[in-house]
Structure formats: C-alpha cells, structure tokens
Amino acid sequence: MLRKDPATDVATLDGIKAFVADKSFPCVGAKSALNRDRMRMSRFGDMAGADTTQELWKALVRYSQEFPDPGSAPVSFVAVFDEIEAGDEATFECLLWRQLQALHDHDHARGIVWDRSVNSDPSQADFSFSVGGRAFFVVGMHPGASRMARRAPSPCIVFNFHNQFESLKASGKYAGMQDAIRIRDTALQGSVNPVLARFGDSSEAVQYSGRAADGAWKCPFSMRGAA
Fold it and tell me: Does the pTM of the predicted model rise above 0.90?
C-alpha cells in the first residue's frame, strides 16, 4: 500500500532526486525529466504486494493520462518501494518481475489488452512491457546493484513511455542521447553496462533489472491469454 508517513515519504523521494541530480549520474534523460519537472514519483510499500500493485496500477494509469503525447522532452514515473530484506541483484530481479507480472494480471482481470504497438513475447526484439494499455520501457534500480548508475538509495522501478523512445529514435535524437549516457556511464564505472543494447535491437526485457545475465537467461514473465 502507499506509505502513510509523509515525513518518511518526503525524505525517501528526496533521496532519489538527489541520486539523479548528482553530477556523476549518467542518464541525461532522467536528469532532464527531473530538471523540467517531468519526473513523477510515488512511494509504495512492499514490491509485488497486492495493495502495492493496485495503487501502482492506478498511479501508472493516471501518469499515462497526464501524458497522452509526451513529446520530445523526457518524462518518467518512478515507483519507490520499501527496502528489500535480501538486497542482492537476483532477489531484486525476482521481485521486479513479480511486480510486473502482478500489474499485467491486474490488467488481464479487467480485460485491458496489451499495447498493440509492441510485442508481448519477452524473447522478441520488439517486446515492451504494457500496463493500462500503454507500453513502457522499464528500469530497475536498488541499493544492491553492481552498476553504480542503478545503485539508487531505495528500490525503484522507473517507467518510461515506449512511444517517446520511438519518437526520439525516429527524430535522430535517441542515438546521441544513448552515446552521451554510455560515455558518462563509462566515466562513472570504468566500463559500459554489458546488458545495454540499442533500443529495438534486441529484447529489452533482459535490461530491466540491471543484472548482468548470461545467454541462458529466460524471462520469468507469462502472458495471460490474449490480454
């Protein structure tokens, strides 16, 4: 469920903002969204919990309604969760996919179909996660991440509009932004994140948690029926 302690919520969200605002943080898109007041944040309880899923689903639908056409200026929704008892990368990855599965199940129970502009099969290059009928590129961050760019002070899932990435790619702006991120990420970590791929070149599912998976990795997500 949503957190009820306003002081704790503010401090937690401020911590995420400070993490993104730090000069070493490599994602220039996230920095732009924060600086332009186009980053939405909400604090939730346990990742993949029933109450959390219901509230997160509602928040994502509101977010989608707020930005029916996000334009070219980056926009993001950051869902911040309670601390994870075992904060290693494998545990976070498991919880992230449990949360995404729960959101999809919530859609399916309401007859909401997958965004037709993307594939629902996570093994395919044109896969993107859909919730509320809208496709999102998902980024997981948490304190136990091996990549410093993903090592947020609290567990988070960031939802970025897939169609905005497509628009940026079509305009030629996406490649420049990706190159800038890679340069900054290398400066921060000493190497580029090995799981990163060019948008649309391979399935983005393996990138969601940030864990460096091997070639045998299989996405734990299951599509429900035709929704």
Answer: yes
